[in-house]
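User: Run a structure prediction on this.
Assistant: Running it now.
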Amino acid sequence: MCPLCSKGLFRRSGGKVESFSEGDEGAAELGPDRRLTTYQLVGMLIRMTTTNRPSSSSAASSSWRIWPTAMSAVTSGQRAPRGSARAKLIAAAHAMVRKQGYAATTVDQICAEAGVTKGAFFHHFASKEDLAVAAAEGWTDRARPMFEMPPHVHLDDPLARLLGHIDFRLAMLDGPTEDYTCFVGTMVQEAYATSDRIRAACEASINAYCEALAPDIQATIDLYGAPGDVTAIGLAQHIQSVLQGSFVLAKTTNDPAIARESVTHLKRYVRMLFGSGGAA
């Protein structure tokens, strides 16, 4: 079981993982339409900023999804140890760019956020652009738990896994905008025309997400069927497009509600596409 499923948060029943019930009284209070799914609860526990991984002793560790090998061409060198100046600078870049944008974020601000000297910055990175490229690669690593840790990745039905992933993303849409928006999506909107290195690094990160989602989509197509022009990678890209667009809408209102509505429509579309009805 996923390490986040401890303390009775989740329970397994046959081929599926049931919803949270801290004694069924708490779940009943939410009502039949407001009961939190397993995926929504895990989404509240894991944010895109997480770097935690399951322990090697957990059952989940033996069934982690293999990250696309294409990412080996993107990731350069060995990852810095957690807590190192390099890792702190990358984490600071993730936080600052999501909060105020790439252009508005200075090297001095990143150093202050990371708690390191400017000399340490230039020891690891020749420029702000170099940090941006490394941070895009690091963002891909930070996204891995979405495909490894939530309970829905262990479900037998590929459509249930796909809908579980969308539920998971839906549950992440809460709190300040910078907590749930995408680092590479934010950065590429500003830098795509001025830095081809940043654009390419962001493209690789977004492609890695789509490639990680595509196997479950292909398995769903194989099991349930789909219109002839629907491809696994095309639907994965559409899911990514809706998510990125929902982040933009949330920024216009400074409220995640509009983003949640968009992702709910996405879930409804996927259900209808595979003949599972229109209920959210």
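The chain has one domain: 14-25+36-52+71-273.
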